[in-house]
Specification:
Length: 511
C-alpha cells in the first residue's frame, strides 16, 4: 500500500475547506493543516468568532452555512479537499433531518466544484447492529457518512468513539463525574466497552486524510490502543488526577433521559448535549478494523494510551493551554444577533442599566479584572443570585452558569464564558458579552476601562435587554428591582478588585 509521505515538502500544499472551524475539532485542525503546508479556507456562520485565533491571519474565512447551497457552492470554488466537521447535535428532535439536508448540500456542491475528496469525522458504530437500533446520534452520523460515500466524490469517513482531549465534551463529562462523586450510583452503560482515542491522534488522521491515495472511498475505524469500559476510564482519570479510588455502583434503572439529567446535574455539559452522548454509550463501540495504518503508520508516533491521553489533557488544563473547548461551538438555538446600535434597529424597546465609577487604579489594572471575570473568579456580586439564575437556566434546558472559561486570564471573540459568549473584545478597553441563557429576548453585558480627561480611570458598565413580546417586558420589570444589588454590586466590586490589584501587585480576587 502507498504510505503517506513524512516529508511535508514532497508535494505542493492543497487548497482545503474546513467547516466547523469554530468548534472543538475544527478549531484545532486548521492550524495543523496550515503547518502541513496547505492553504485553508474556513466556512463559518459567524466569521468574527475566528478573528482572535492565533492562526486567523493565515487562513481565509468566509461567511456561510452548510444548509445554504449558495454559500457552500461559493466556498467550494478551487478547493481540492473539503473537511466536514459539523453536526446538529443538541438542536432538538429534527436534528437528523438537518444533518441529512446539510450533508446533501455539501456533497452536491463538492461534486459540482470538482472537489477531489471529502473528509468526514463521524461516530463509531457497533459492529453488526442494525442502524435502526442505534441511538439517534450515532444513526445520524452513520447516515451522513453514507451520503458522502454515495455522493460521487471520493470520501474518507473516519469513525471515532470517545475523544479524549482537554476541553472535549466527553473529557469534561468524565472529569466532572469523577472529581465530584467519590461514590457514584451510575447507569449500567458504565460497563459498556469502548475504544477511546486521544484528540492528538484524531487530528493526525484527519490531516493525513487530505493526502491519502486517489481512489479511496471508504470508512476507517480509528481508536486508541485500549479497549476499556467507561467505569475503567473513570478510575483511570481518578488515578491520573491523584484522586482516591472511586466507588462505582451501576444500576439498570437509569434510562438515557435520566442519565442525561444526572450528567447535567453534576457536569457543565447541558442536557441537550449530554443526552445523545449518554445514548451513544449504551452501545459497545470498538474498532472492527485498523486499516488506516496501511496509509498512516503508527510508527514512529504511536497512538496514545487512554491513561497517557488523560494525563496530557490534565496537563493542558493545568498549564492553561486549552486551545478549544466543547463550548467553542455556538449553543443550538442561542441568539447570534449583534448588539443593536440604537433602539430603532431593535424594532422597539431596548432596556438599559448603566453604571459608572471612578477607579483608584490604572486602566491596565482595571482591564485585568474585567478580562478575568467569570469562571472561578465569579461575577463580583451576590454569588447566590448568579447561582440561582444558573440553576434556573439549567432547569429549562439552558447551558447554566458552569461552562466556565477556556483560559483563566485571556479571552477572545467567540469564547464561551459561563452562560455568556464573548461578542466583542478590544484589549485594554472593551468587553462585550452576549447572553446564551434562556431568555424572552436578547441580552448583552458591556464593560469598559477608560481614562478620563482628568487622567483618572473610569469603569463603565452597561446591561442591555431587547424584549421579545409581552413576556420579555414582564421579565425585565420583574428583575429590575434586583439590578442595584446585582449590577451595582458588580461595578463596585470590580472597581475595588482593581484597586486591590494595584495595591498588592497580584491577581485580583472576587469581591
Amino acid at each position: 500500500m502507498t504510505e503517506v509521505g513524512s516529508d511535508p515538502d514532497a508535494e505542493p500544499g492543497l487548497h482545503v475547506l474546513v467547516t466547523g472551524a469554530t468548534g472543538y475539532i475544527g478549531g484545532r485542525l486548521v492550524p495543523e493543516l496550515l503547518d502541513a503546508g496547505h492553504r485553508v479556507r474556513c466556512l463559518a456562520r459567524t466569521p468574527e468568532k475566528l478573528r482572535d485565533h492565533p492562526w486567523s491571519g493565515r487562513a481565509d474565512v468566509v461567511r456561510g452555512d452548510v444548509t445554504d447551497a449558495e454559500s457552500v457552492a461559493e466556498a467550494m470554488r478551487d478547493i481540492d479537499v473539503a473537511y466536514y466537521l459539523v453536526h446538529a447535535l443538541g438542536t432538538g428532535s429534527g436534528f437528523e433531518e438537518t444533518d441529512r439536508r446539510a450533508a446533501r448540500v455539501f456533497s452536491e456542491a463538492a461534486r459540482a466544484a470538482g472537489v477531489r475528496r471529502i473528509v468526514y469525522l463521524g461516530g463509531l458504530t457497533p459492529a453488526g447492529k442494525p442502524e435502526a437500533e442505534l441511538s439517534p446520534h450515532l444513526r445520524s452520523r452513520a447516515e451522513v457518512g453514507r451520503i458522502f460515500l454515495d455522493s460521487g466524490v471520493e470520501s474518507v469517513v473516519l469513525r471515532a468513539a470517545v475523544i479524549i482531549g482537554s476541553g472535549s465534551a466527553s473529557f469534561e463529562m468524565l472529569r466532572y463525574l469523577t472529581e465530584r462523586l467519590p461514590v457514584m450510583i451510575t447507569p449500567s452503560w458504565v460497563r459498556t466497552r469502548i475504544q477511546p482515542i486521544a484528540v492528538r491522534d484524531v487530528l493526525r488522521y484527519l490531516v493525513a486524510g487530505a493526502r491519502l491515495p486517489a481512489g479511496l472511498n471508504r470508512t476507517f475505524d480509528i481508536g486508541g490502543p485500549d479497549i476499556i469500559t467507561y467505569r475503567d476510564m473513570m478510575r483511570a482519570y481518578a488515578s491520573a488526577a491523584g484522586l482516591p479510588r472511586r466507588v462505582i455502583l451501576p444500576v439498570p434503572v437509569l434510562t438515557p433521559t435520566l442519565s442525561s439529567y444526572w450528567i447535567g446535574l453534576v457536569t457543565p455539559v447541558p442536557h441537550a448535549i449530554a443526552r445523545p452522548l449518554a445514548e451513544s454509550l449504551r452501545h459497545e463501540v470498538v474498532c472492527a478494523e485498523h486499516d488506516i495504518t496501511q496509509y498512516v503508520p503508527d510508527q514512529p508516533r504511536k497512538p496514545l494510551t487512554c491513561a497517557a491521553a488523560l494525563r496530557l489533557a490534565l496537563r493542558r488544563i493545568q498549564d492553561a493551554q486549552v486551545t478549544t473547548r466543547w463550548s467553542s461551538a455556538s449553543v443550538p438555538g442561542a441568539p447570534s444577533d449583534p448588539l443593536p446600535t440604537d433602539p430603532g434597529w431593535s424594532g422597539g424597546s431596548l432596556y438599559t442599566d448603566r453604571r459608572q465609577l471612578t477607579v483608584d487604579a490604572s486602566p491596565e489594572a482595571l482591564w485585568r479584572v474585567i478580562e478575568g471575570i467569570g469562571g472561578d473568579n465569579g461575577w463580583y456580586s451576590f454569588p447566590l443570585a448568579w447561582a440561582v439564575r444558573g440553576w434556573l437556566d439549567r432547569l429549562v434546558g439552558g447551558v447554566g452558569l458552569r461552562r466556565g472559561r477556556r483560559d483563566a486570564a485571556r479571552l477572545r471573540v467567540g469564547d464561551s464564558l459561563d452562560f455568556w459568549r464573548v461578542e466583542e473584545i478590544e484589549p485594554g478597553r472593551l468587553l462585550r458579552l452576549r447572553a446564551e441563557m434562556r431568555l424572552p429576548g436578547l441580552a448583552w453585558l458591556e464593560m469598559r476601562a477608560e481614562q478620563g480627561d482628568d487622567g483618572r480611570t473610569r469603569y463603565r458598565q452597561r446591561a442591555l435587554f431587547h424584549p421579545r413580546g409581552l413576556l420579555g417586558h414582564a421579565y425585565w420589570w420583574s428583575v429590575a428591582p434586583f439590578h442595584t444589588v446585582v449590577f451595582g454590586g458588580m461595578a463596585r466590586n470590580i472597581a475595588k478588585a482593581a484597586g486591590r490589584e494595584r495595591t498588592a501587585g497580584q491577581d485580583p480576587k472576587p469581591g
